[in-house]
């Protein structure tokens, strides 16, 4: 049975983040990639996506997309038939993380936004993929296509997000928690924490994979999402 599936990209990511899934899962899911660029708060982003989404739908988000997905399921749990949280976490920013985002916003406001440069990529992908020119270009082009104004809105929303952990036990839909074993921005321990708090959640760890699992190891991610959609 083909079911509606809303996909939410991460910070500085576009629909290209989900291209392998859009190609591989079309037989079982009617997929749309949400626009997460227009607002500077998680609440407003969630409301905007809900306004565009089907009455009931499966929902998947990676990194920032996971933060938004958690806000969506908090606002409208009855509309989310199943939930996938990829390479993300349920915690609020620490003071140090918030200060770092504020510094990035200040730099961007002074016209020094550079998107994702080659020196930042080792924090996002597994060392095995550092010679993958096509993958690195995809990451750089997604950031370039996102641009300064959207980056500032997205960072503002991220650093002001709530701690979603108290709301996780209320999630009742089939939930997939997935991450790359070597995810640096969102380590495995944070996914184990979410899986322990969400009733019946399934934790899947993708080996030899960093933060951008959908692009780094699409076959393994597609297999996990296919199992999740069939639950």
Quick overview of this protein structure:
Helix content is 42%, strand content 15%.
First CA to last CA: what distance? Answer: 12 Å
Number of domains: 1
Report mean pLDDT, rounded to a whole number. 96
Number of separate helices: 9
**Unreliable runs:** none
The secondary structure category is alpha/beta
The CATH architecture can be named as: 3-Layer(aba) Sandwich
Our estimate of the beta-strand percent is 15-25%
| Helical percentage | 40-55%
Strand order of the largest sheet: 2-1-3-4-5-6
Q: Could you name the CATH topology?
A: Rossmann fold
Task: Give the CATH superfamily.
Answer: Alpha/Beta hydrolase fold, catalytic domain
**Looking at the structure, what is the overall shape?**
globular
Task: Report on the architecture of this protein.
With 231 residues, this protein is an alpha/beta fold. It has one domain: 3-Layer(aba) Sandwich (Rossmann fold). The protein is built from 9 helices and 6 strands, in the order βαβαβαβαααβαβαα. It has helices spanning 19-24, 42-52, 64-75, 95-109, 133-146, 148-159, 188-197, 213-216, 218-229; strands at 3-8, 29-33, 57-62, 80-86, 175-180, 202-206. α3 links the parallel β3 and β4 (80-86). The N and C termini lie close together (12 Å).
């Amino acid at each position: 049975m083909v079911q509606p599936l809303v996909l939410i990209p991460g910070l500085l990511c576009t629909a290209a983040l989900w291209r392998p899934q859009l190609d591989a899962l079309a037989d079982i899911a009617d997929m749309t990639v949400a626009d997460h660029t227009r607002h500077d708060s998680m609440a407003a982003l969630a409301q905007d996506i809900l306004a565009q989404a089907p009455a009931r739908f499966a929902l998947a988000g990676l990194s920032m997309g996971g933060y938004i997905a958690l806000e969506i399921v908090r606002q409208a749990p009855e509309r989310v038939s199943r939930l996938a949280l990829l390479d993300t976490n349920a915690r609020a920013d620490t003071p140090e993380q918030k200060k770092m985002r504020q510094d990035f916003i200040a730099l961007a406001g002074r016209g020094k936004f550079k998107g994702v440069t080659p020196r930042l990529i080792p924090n996002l992908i597994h060392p095995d993929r550092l010679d993958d020119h096509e993958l690195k270009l995809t990451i750089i082009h997604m950031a370039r296509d996102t641009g300064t104004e959207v980056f500032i809105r997205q960072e503002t929303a991220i650093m002001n997000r709530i701690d979603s952990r108290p709301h996780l036990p209320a999630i009742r839909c089939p939930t997939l928690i997935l991450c790359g074993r070597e995810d640096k921005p969102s380590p495995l321990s944070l996914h184990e924490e979410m899986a322990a708090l969400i009733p019946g959640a399934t934790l899947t760890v993708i080996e030899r994979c960093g933060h951008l699992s959908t692009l780094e190891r699409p076959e393994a991610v597609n297999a996990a999402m296919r199992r999740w959609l069939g639950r």
